[in-house]
Amino acid sequence: MAGQAETIYANRKGELSMATETHHDVIVIGGGPAGSSAATFLSKQGHQVLLLEKEKFPRDHVGESLLPFCHNLFEQLGVLEQMKETFVRKPGVRFIDSDGSQSTTWCFDKVIHDHTYLSFQVGRGDFDKLLLDNARRHGATVLEETRVTGVALDGPDGTVSVQASGPDGQTANYAARFLMDCSGRDAYMATRQRLKKKYAELDRTALWTHYGGAPLRGGLEEGLSLIIYMGGDKKGWLWIFPLGPNRLTVGVVLNNAYIRTEKAKLEQLGVEDWRLALYEQELSYSRFARELLANAEMLQPLVVEGDYSYYTESKYGENYAMVGDAATFIDPIFSSGVYLAINGARKVSQGVHRRLTMPEEGNAGLVEAYKSIEGAYKMVFKLITFFYSVNTINFAQMEAVSDTIHQQHQDAMSVGHFLLAGDFFERYDEYSKVIDALQSPSIFSKYKKLVSARPSLQDTSCDVSPDLAFHRLRVIN
Ligand SMILES: Cc1cc2nc3c(=O)[nH]c(=O)nc-3n(C[C@H](O)[C@H](O)[C@H](O)COP(=O)(O)OP(=O)(O)OC[C@H]3O[C@@H](n4cnc5c(N)ncnc54)[C@H](O)[C@@H]3O)c2cc1C
Asked: How many structural domains are present in the chain?
């Protein structure tokens, strides 16, 4: 429970003053999906939580397409009804080839037979604020515009002390029994402890922005995520998701080696803004994107996201834990990040609760939580590297096959649907074996034969009414 003690504060000029320090059960660094969910789950368990967030919300963020497996988590967090009122619904994903000649549509209702099949496309400014306000509503103390600048793990009786700089520039010290680092790709603890390791094979950068004035078609009118695989040396792909009837998020993901070569070429041509030129060049290579955006207007400046795909081997200790992107980030091709972050936060919060209420158990709860989290991340990593491997199935060339196959969970197509929906945490071993099996050339070629024999490779629809996807948003946007 919270307590108070005298502490010394210093402003930016180094002038000191005495003030009161509040002690909490748990301090959370960062108010993204991991941090705000952790704060809500722990507050619901009766813990005194302090969340420190460096930005003022709403703030923009990449990562706008959510998986259906988030549905139950939103229910547990108590935000499901708000989500339904606010955001576009997403019934599935469509993978398209660069020339637009082949595509497959993966509809979640093929394997999820209740209302939870319908996921969400979210503007992250509004979504993250909704989750952060929810944490406040559940009793967490949330300080925005408060950047954590120092952490000491060796306080008296195993406590943690955290130094943070607030909106007025003043520095304050806070203490807690446990620290959760949910600082996203800043990876506060892992960076300072030099624990961050790169996934060299996933060395990519993303460039993205929002467009208005584009027609909703090709599945966008139903709320589908479109992934256009560009392949080749660039190992690149595009994302196009609808965030409202008149707002598309459009991203280009490219291998960094390819970016360096193209940058040199563009600079030689005397291009002023090589990033924007590269972004537009890559969009123009896809017939679908080119035609879709022909008369569209960019609604916000281009954002460049580098430095991703890394992991941390040691993610927790006696009095701290890293959660979400603060611990690991894997290439976003399958839109897995927010689900991994929120479910990771849920599992770690359960471990922290046990740590705080049953000290005799030691770290048993955390060990359990991280076993499942590690299993999920490793399996998603395997799936992603498989997707990028030379021999692999291009998801655009895999036909979404017959109903019989959809009904069999063990079947590869069915597994594909479950994986795209987010079934990462409970059966990662089974899925991992399927991915391994598909790497065998003979199984893979059998599979391809089965796949290429399928008719109707061009399905673009999940047979969902646009009214379901966009419901009342048509009035708002
Ligand atoms: C190109 C790209 C595309 C993606 N697309 C998708 C997608 O379609 N779907 C999906 O689910 N995921 C996607 N992701 C991943 C998704 O963005 C992240 O996995 C998700 O946001 C992780 O949540 P988090 O809470 O761990 O971190 P974040 O959402 O990054 O939140 C961390 C918070 O910590 C705060 N913070 C950082 N340092 C400090 C500090 N020192 N003091 C105080 N506060 C601090 C930050 O301001 C931030 O608000 C994508 C990622 C990238 C890079």
From this structure: 2
In a domain, 343, yes or no: yes
Instruction: Dump pLDDT digits (tens) for 258-280.
Output: 999 999 999 999 999 999 999 99
Q: Does 218 contact ligand 1 (Cβ within 6 A)?
A: no
Whether 137 and 12 share a structural domain: yes
**Cα–ligand 1 centroid distance for 247 (angstroms):** 21
- Residue 138 corresponds to which tokens in the numbers above? 């559940």
Q: Which of 57, 127, 128, 186 to mutate to test the pocket of ligand 1 (most atoms within 8 A of CB)?
A: 186
Please tell me if the CB atom of residue 36 comes closer than 6 angstroms to any atom of ligand 1: no
CA distance 259 to 234: 8
Q: What gap in Å lies between CA 87 and CA 223, rounded to an integer?
A: 10
**pLDDT tens profile 156-214:** 889 999 999 999 999 999 999 999 999 999 999 999 999 999 887 788 899 999 999 99
Is there a single domain that holds both residue 261 and residue 232? yes
Rounded to the nearest angstrom, the distance between the alpha carbon of 189 and the centre of ligand 1 is: 15
Q: What is the pTM of this model?
A: 0.91
**Are the beta carbons of 338 and 66 closer than 8 angstroms?**
yes
Pair (246, 350) in one structural domain:
no
Q: Which of 124, 133, 131, 126 is nearest to 303 (CA)?
A: 124
Task: Give yes or no for residue 111 CB within 6 A of ligand 1.
Answer: no
Structural domain harbouring 132: 3-59+124-196+309-362
